[in-house]
Amino acid sequence: MREKIDALTQNLALTIVGKAEAIRLVLVALLGGGHALLEDVPGVGKTLLAKSLARSLDGKFQRLQCTPDLLPTDITGTNIWNPKSGEFTFLPGPVFTNILLADEINRATPRTQSALLEVMEEHQVTVDGVSRPVPQPFFVIATQNPIEYQGTFPLPEAQMDRFMLSLSLGYPSEAEELLMLQNLQNGVKVADLQPCITLAEVQELRYICSQVKVTTSLQQYILELVRTTRQDEEIALGVSPRGTLALQRAAQALAFLLGRDYAIPDDVKFLVPHVLCHRLIPRGGRNTRTVVERLLRSVSIP
Fold first, then answer.
1. Calpha distance 110→106 (Å, rounded)
2. Phi and psi of 100, rounded to 5°?
3. What pLDDT digit, counting tens, does each position of 215-269 carry?
4. pLDDT tens digit string along 11-29?
5. How many CA atoms lie within 13 A of 112 on its CB side?
6. Of 38, 89, 32, which Cα lies nearest the Cα of 246?
7. Are 168 and 288 contacting, i.e. CB atoms less than 8 angstroms apart?
8. Nearest-10 Cα torsion for 212, 23, 117, 41
């Protein structure tokens, strides 16, 4: 399975230039059984990353462009009348896929955003009282522009909490952008990528990651970090117990990606900004990242 992970990482690196850390974080969310939120400006490769991942997994990929006129049934699917059979037939929505890219999710209305709540947590869709499971593995990559807020609907805390981690691809360096230009004609395109891991193997990898050892002292470290966010004077809303579980699962997945069968404090420290920042509401317009870094320094490492 280590060879499978290496092949998957190399496959993604063929199309995503110079973003090794972002690739690792997305794989942490995938293998940890969560979802990823990409907060970045347009044009830095968010859609490309999602498509490349779907191609590498040999999975089904759907892209959902969120707009204010998008309806919940445009996401989940709906029952339509079939005149031939004389009964209603369910027409599946784009969530019936393996990799779902919800592009500019904060441009959808709150009612439409809520349609993703059930499927992200329960991996099922309920339409007209009938629950239907979505294919497994099911992984959501949502994007939003952190700069432009005109015509947007900020994600509520309950929805933000559904994402295991948040990350930013950022602008490429000069050397990376030059390589992108050089690859424009002769580089590997998404359509050229070959699947290197099956969906069944992804499910097996998720189970393996869940078995990575986390000592009691490390769990206490995770707990202290989370509970500190609930007591700090600069934070209006701290991290929920779902965030506590997400931090441990992410640390297990990262440890596995780094070739260990046990998690260490450095795994947790690296992941804390990505797992906790989007779950917090700071007071007085303070920078969330700065607050979290201060908390990291204040909690002793086991």
1. 9
2. -115, 120
3. 999 999 999 999 999 988 888 888 999 999 999 999 999 999 999 999 999 999 9
4. 888 888 878 888 999 999 9
5. 24
6. 32
7. no
8. 150
